[in-house]
## 1
Amino acid sequence: MSSRGRPVVTSHADIERAAFRLFAERGFEGTTLDAIAEAVGVGRRTLFRYFDSKNDIPWGQFDRTLDGFRSILAGMPDDLPVWEAVHRGVVEFNRFDPEADPPHRERMELLLRTPALQAHSVLRYADWRQVIAEYVAQRLELRPDGLLPETVSQVSLALALSGYQLWLADEEASLTDLLEEAMSSLREYLELG
Amino acid sequence: MSSRGRPVVTSHADIERAAFRLFAERGFEGTTLDAIAEAVGVGRRTLFRYFDSKNDIPWGQFDRTLDGFRSILAGMPDDLPVWEAVHRGVVEFNRFDPEADPPHRERMELLLRTPALQAHSVLRYADWRQVIAEYVAQRLELRPDGLLPETVSQVSLALALSGYQLWLADEEASLTDLLEEAMSSLREYLELG
DNA sequence: CCACTATTGGCACCGAGTGTCGAAACACGA
DNA sequence: TCGTGTTTCGACACTCGGTGCCAATAGTGG
């Protein structure tokens, strides 16, 4: 089917590896697309056929994980309170493969500590949030663009981000634990007084 | 003191007005810096002496409002539960001048509906979040970069964003009301008193 | 009238991103 | 074996945002 025509000379994974190596050496801003293209052994123009922008390279194939996220949420028992279902779903979604290459920690460090990527990433988070908003809407029979689904999706992202932030600050920390702690510290915070 | 040297030929407000007019006509992406420079009657190079980037123009003089935000929080009674002090502070901070030019609604519509600005804005939110994290840390005698202050600042932003989102969707809505509703819907969602 | 000073604006340059188009490299059927 | 169709590749030219540099400008004050 797709075996006709000129064969591809590279892949998302190829580019990702070469790019991460350069990012580690010279930093994200210090690495030009020309340098990546050269390292991969491909024309600069070709990079854009695999990734929409330089900012998208560190994200890899993130889109593909969203179906998995949807499944995780859909599989949550209906008798679980919505907030707990969402919370467990988020925690589950962030159980990454410890053998991943590039390592999850390296990827997230790049994404969350590089200003240009911090900024660009909100555009990627949007799809992730949409998954949550739709789940909440479906569970509570609301419109996905209503206040509660929207709020929940934003707050879930907020909790994940602060969990990741602390995780990055501590080499030994467990991401799962920190995501749990973020949620429980929010609950305590709101119960004060 | 500052009256020596060549006098300025424009101002932040000048540029902002000209830019907003063009953004309204041709959209943000469709407006080049050359066009703005020409409309203001100034060299393109000069624009960068007033704003760090094109993305910063819609934000205007946002930095300057942060001191006000700090004062608002500092003025909150100490016997108020922290979460409520922060919440009231956020609501108070978002009481904008209805006569503002450009109008607050137009500005926020641009900022929250233009992808490039949605992305870039997280870099501006960072300072705003820092104000909250520091207040929470001070009130609870914690480090500002600890989990709770970080989480609270992220969640406060999340609540504000979802309030704004719904506000933009409804011409008649009150931002203050929606910020209140965002907080109360979160509390219900988390099944708290 | 002469320094001094701060802003301006032009120029050259870099890097990301896009549109276009011909060429390369394969599979397949004649 | 030789086209033919198909798909990817890569080069080129171009736009736009952003930066470094520097001379010119237009004031103030002695």
## 2
Amino acid sequence: MPRQKETIAITTPHVAGAEDIGEIRNIVGFHIRLAHGAVYRHFTETFAHLDLTQKQVSALWLVADHPDIAQIGVAQRMRMDRATTMAIVNRLEAKGYLVRRKSRSDGRKQALNLTDPGRRALAAAKRAIQQHEQWLKSRFTEQEVARLIELLARIHE
Amino acid sequence: MPRQKETIAITTPHVAGAEDIGEIRNIVGFHIRLAHGAVYRHFTETFAHLDLTQKQVSALWLVADHPDIAQIGVAQRMRMDRATTMAIVNRLEAKGYLVRRKSRSDGRKQALNLTDPGRRALAAAKRAIQQHEQWLKSRFTEQEVARLIELLARIHE
DNA sequence: GGTCTTTGTAAGTTATACTAACAATCTTAT
DNA sequence: ATAAGATTGTTAGTATAACTTACAAAGACC
């Protein structure tokens, strides 16, 4: 994770000339990538003091919402493969935020559950996310937010 | 902030505190990340035979649109820092798709330009992007595409 | 039982993004 | 004009993430 102190804002500020991107601006994928990058950077700043990445928070949140979930369940909900999920669960386990234990219903699976520190970390993360979402939503009306979510969902569903 | 809970309707069964910001699916950032992941994955499949990533294509395209552009120019337009831009330009140079040469107007800068193989690679990439964009746009009307681009631009601009 | 599938794990590769430090060059203030 | 400061490219090092391949253990199905 890009650890950082709280010095400066975004490393590549929007300066004159940045909007001159030519015909590439008509490519939807290009805008999704730029928007994702902007959100990612702001997220990282907002979460610098919590030592958690987007993926880690999402995984933590999913485990909280679905006690005893298996890694494959997290992977499916986050559209990741098993190996990537492993890496993220490993990091969360190393931080002491969740525990693996063999599932009783299916010996192949590991049931994931939050620890108390994990619950506290998630609570703090949710407060930070509120800030982050506020930053993100501040440029839209409520109706536009709903519309944006609906359009994005059509891409990933 | 009057009446806003309606759009974030779905109730969380377990915890209902003042700090509870609802289910993860109501978080805009989560949808942007999932949509970006879906687009990234499809892009990678579409481009498997071309040995080019999203970033590399974008950089190639920008250099084609702006001959003699400096690395810092590419960085600003793609919202990347100088070090990340270096890595991408290095890869494109290693593939023989572009050349660096000292800028005459500013000795600190490197003027970037495509080679002939670079131009051919970009032409092929643009054809693949048409396919990719078709896949992406197929779930929207033209009007929705325009709306989506407009909303996304508000995030990264 | 035997075979196929699913799940977790491990190892290794690639791409991206960031920091910090440095040299060369340009810009600006005195 | 020169000193001080800012910009640009570069290198080195770190962290995350996504992927592949391979393997073992357990479940599903015939």
## 3
Amino acid sequence: MANIHQVAKYAGVSVATVSRVLNDQGTVTAKTRIKVEDAIKELNYEPSMLGRNLRNSESRILLILIPTISNPFYSEIIKGIETAALKHNYNILLCETDSNPERENIYFDLVRKKMADGIISMDPAVNMETLMKLAEHHSIIQCSEYALDSGIPYVTIDNEDAAYRAVKHLIRIGHEKIALINSDEKFLYARQRKLGYQKALRENGIEVQDNYMFHTQELGFDQGRQAMRKILDLDDRPTAVFTVSDLLAIGALKEIHQHGLLVPNDIAIVGFDKIDFSNMTHPTLTTIAQPMYQMGTIAANMLIDKIKGNEVDSIVLDHELIIRESTSG
Amino acid sequence: MANIHQVAKYAGVSVATVSRVLNDQGTVTAKTRIKVEDAIKELNYEPSMLGRNLRNSESRILLILIPTISNPFYSEIIKGIETAALKHNYNILLCETDSNPERENIYFDLVRKKMADGIISMDPAVNMETLMKLAEHHSIIQCSEYALDSGIPYVTIDNEDAAYRAVKHLIRIGHEKIALINSDEKFLYARQRKLGYQKALRENGIEVQDNYMFHTQELGFDQGRQAMRKILDLDDRPTAVFTVSDLLAIGALKEIHQHGLLVPNDIAIVGFDKIDFSNMTHPTLTTIAQPMYQMGTIAANMLIDKIKGNEVDSIVLDHELIIRESTSG
DNA sequence: ATCGTTCTTGTAATCGTTTACAAAAACATC
DNA sequence: GATGTTTTTGTAAACGATTACAAGAACGAT
């Protein structure tokens, strides 16, 4: 493979001139530009990002920290990030932490070692202390899940209000016994959504019952099933369930079917996220739509801005209640 | 941020010695090693991958080419790739082509420009000519979808046999009118699976009917619905459907339900891939299990081997028929 | 004390770019 | 043609690591 010196020699110019042609900057006569371009073609030259990156002290890579790629919620965000990144000539390094601190550290090291120019963190289980320390010298954006007092800019939705609206919808269509399948309350979004759930109940004179609130370790299908199983075992069985993720909802749905009950007639369900699959189940899921793609593009643009050295402000995006079959009884 | 020279100065040694400590090679006295390690700690030094990569002419990045991250089939493979890559100190650059040649080219450029050390291509729609040309000078592995005569090593399953077994299962449980929802036959796997479908029919004295075979542009839910709609419109309606992806199958399932019919009683369905969601539907999907995670790890190991300059052989992995509710009538 | 070995360290080139600065060329003006 | 101004090009120093090779230190044997 040819390098810039060989191109310069072949074209009979200096490396500086070749570089100028390459980057379309500085002034180059048409005649020399053509000489250089010919040489580039002739030698099949491709400029090495390794040299360029070293010289520019950048990697043009953004690190995306997610707990797992299996949750479609994240894939949709990633799409947004990728498109925005590409537009600015950045590429994305995918990092699944599996909420494993060891992996997390490997990935943090990548930005410490300049292999990445910044981080978009979407892992609720991320080690906040480390992240904050890292943020002192590196560009970081929080996406979806965040710590308010970290001083790290974030893009997210109003979780409390979203949950409030979801539960209010259930109340409006006549439900009073409404269960909550939440995730671990060590996560901010879990606490916020619980608040929304409680607020909706209280506002409508419905007592908040502790035995109607369940917690799961993860946001998956299996956890949804298990939680639903417990709910079905309750003496005073709820007529509706609000879950904090579509995957949980789909698990709950499955469990309800397995018990020979019908959704929404016997039990209504509301999910959260509006992943593609929420529209593929039978019945289709009522859910809260998060603007995932947009969250991705915005997060990426914020990060790139931050890398450039600009100040960036946190953003709260709109959500929307999508009413579908699982509550239309 | 400190660099190696500052560390050397602080420790009172040469950069060579620091480098030796960093990489645990060459000989260093215990005494000087400690001096260097102290300096590293004191200055908060982190070796820059940019310098190292340039010197070593490598990026330690593997490029993963997929059509879309939304299909869980790919996410599972990616998990395998990531784990294997990490074990060898490589990282993965995620590249969604959306089967868009322009995007593809952007990503190909990354390896031309040494931003990536190799490619794992999983995009059936990849431009084979370009890929083959690229393979002359770069390390490439095909995963799942492949071109046999490309000379590029691949890891995959026996698609024909898998389809054959799926359809034979349908025949065994009494079906004779079996439709096929296939994807575009420009893809090798589509042609192979069709062969398997036909072989199973012929072997059992069932005529292969052209009007029972359908093609879709993509492997998604919507395409599955549309194809199923056409099938339901047939005069002589099939009693079973074999689809070449779980997403297609889930779409078909939805459409059947919408028409007030039951699976498997009215129509049985077999999918392909065994994505997580195939177990979440109601009824659960009979499907062909591809060892996706394993395919990922193997592909990654093959690629890393190839990058090292070793010869690597293509591999055909085992598949398995998973019988579930959608055919257990 | 001298020599030969072995072990440890240092010097300086290298990887492939970009860019500040200097130098040369081109042009306009008188 | 001499001079000044502008435009175009070239020289050489970064960026931050690794590594041949050379040199120096340490050590035992004589």
## 4
Amino acid sequence: MTARVIAAHTDPMSVSGHKGSGSPSGPGPEPHRAASIRDVARAAGVSYQTVSRVINDRPNVREETRRRVEDAIEALGFRRNPTAFALASGVTRTVTVLTSNTTLYGYAATLQGLEEAARAAGYSLGVKLLTPEDDLDRTLTSAVADGGGLVVIGFDRLGATALDHVPADVPCAAVVEAPPPGRTPPRPAVWADDREAARAATAHLLDLGHRTVHYLAIPSSVGTRHSEGPRAQGWRSALETAGVTPPEPHGGKGWDARAGYDQAQALAHDPAVTAVLCGNDDLALGVLRALHHAGRSVPGDVSVIGFDDAPHSGFVTPSLTTVRMDFQGLGRDAFALLRDRLEHAPRPPAPTFAGTALIVRESSGPPPA
Amino acid sequence: MTARVIAAHTDPMSVSGHKGSGSPSGPGPEPHRAASIRDVARAAGVSYQTVSRVINDRPNVREETRRRVEDAIEALGFRRNPTAFALASGVTRTVTVLTSNTTLYGYAATLQGLEEAARAAGYSLGVKLLTPEDDLDRTLTSAVADGGGLVVIGFDRLGATALDHVPADVPCAAVVEAPPPGRTPPRPAVWADDREAARAATAHLLDLGHRTVHYLAIPSSVGTRHSEGPRAQGWRSALETAGVTPPEPHGGKGWDARAGYDQAQALAHDPAVTAVLCGNDDLALGVLRALHHAGRSVPGDVSVIGFDDAPHSGFVTPSLTTVRMDFQGLGRDAFALLRDRLEHAPRPPAPTFAGTALIVRESSGPPPA
DNA sequence: CTGAAAGCGCTTACAG
DNA sequence: CTGAAAGCGCTTACAG
């Protein structure tokens, strides 16, 4: 019933504190001031500007001089101080991602794609959590002050709002739930074709013979009242195409299995319901559970389809028919967009095509006879 | 089947580039050089050192002067440049977390706890992913160069190895799988009592009447050959206490449901097996699935217990008996440890007691008669 | 209580 | 091809 904390105070001197030639305390390597550009210059017998040229791969350095400097760098274990670099050059190889969540599968996977791309490009990655209680402007200002660029994950309302508040002159890319409205998008952004994916999932159920399909929504980043998210739109459009009047959508109040369970009560107990499309897999798990408690079988009595293809969705029973998304690809693409913006790329980034795909498993089938 | 990328190049000027009084391009606010300490000083009619005093809450500033400076700060929207602050002061309010994973529940939740604590303390949080392919020393050097402190998530071998390689003079705290061996721990660290939790879970199964309990392991951060992780130890110890010879543990080759499914084949098809403790909930889901495919019911034929209590574990069928962990608490505590180290706290941090708890649900019950 | 100086580690012009 | 100067925005002593 306990978590333990143990503290070891082995080194009373802060490495970040100003150096003094303090006597080495205790065993181990003595606190070692990092070599600076001047130390390297001295060791190589050149001026420190020349060192700067070498570490920045600038031309106009004699081959032999360059070699001597490189040897000194190696010998002293020199690494350029990123803080000083940032201050002097005005360039920060940093990307800060703003997100309201880091544990839900879609968010976590997007974050991972972002991280991989950032690391590959030599960027550091920062994370700032968006919370309703927190002062949004404060969070944004502090993110901007950190330098570098911003990537906002705009899957939900909080993220979308944050995106709207990013000052126009701050380099920023976004991964969003749906294409921004209007012809001149305010920001570089990436998104998956959720609308089409939802349409295909709904059509799959209709093709199976269901007379209609109910929808349990995730909270959307776009208006809750007058408009709905792309997944809901795709569902609605598939029904309309088939000449079916869409029933009232459910949900919209949460993302997790508990929210799915709670919000599916009405659906689960309505014998007319034979097919439910869910805004994500967690919600679908909750629906499965509600159906179980209502004594209805899946897919015998009711078919259920999820969204996102979380790693465990193929291993629950019944395994979940769902839409596979490429969140990591979205993250990578968003980083690429930001980087182009940051580094003044001459050409606009090439469109990439990461896929969505309907994965049919056990939870969907024909309606009861 | 597509993800779309759209690029908007609304602002050709980089905000991070050196300012020039560039003509404002297009609509929107013109690129605005952030106010500096000198701008504030000018506006307030004082020297910039006085501004420095005010923003650092230093004494020895006349009340009226302070007020004038604060007004100027407000009027100009001044925010101290963190990069310059870091360079001049040698203090970086940044924590970089090193982790091999960001999507598995335990990692993601720990990260979230870290983020919350960091934000509350006014620290920025960076994330660096640890990969087997990557050069560990390079990753570490770059993390250290970013300044501030490190928190490494040492749940697995990669994390534990990284922790071992952190130079002794770098401020660092860790969240680890098990208490560090030896009496003088090398680093401030936090951990939960996994051993005791696994013991309790195993005892629960024994109390239910099972003759023995099998174990499906997660990969451990500690030696795979001569030693085993704390969860395995707790399981083993509970069996031994009950006078039962522990069977050979399974698993150790992966963390997710697929790994659980694959590694549970032998257990699932062995009629003598009536109880399985799993290293985490994902593994348990895979075991449930393997059992289902083998035609064995849970908990009728076999009881299954997981670890971690992931958010959906209560909503699968059968719902999972599992051990609830306080990963967020672990993250918060690790940050507190690091902060104390960074800010030279006089007192060692007080031990905190975050809980683990056995949550009994549907997947465990008495053995078949 | 307040100001003038020097410096953090680097870069970008500007000389030679 | 290489060096001396000025500056990034702030802080920490040091004067008054």
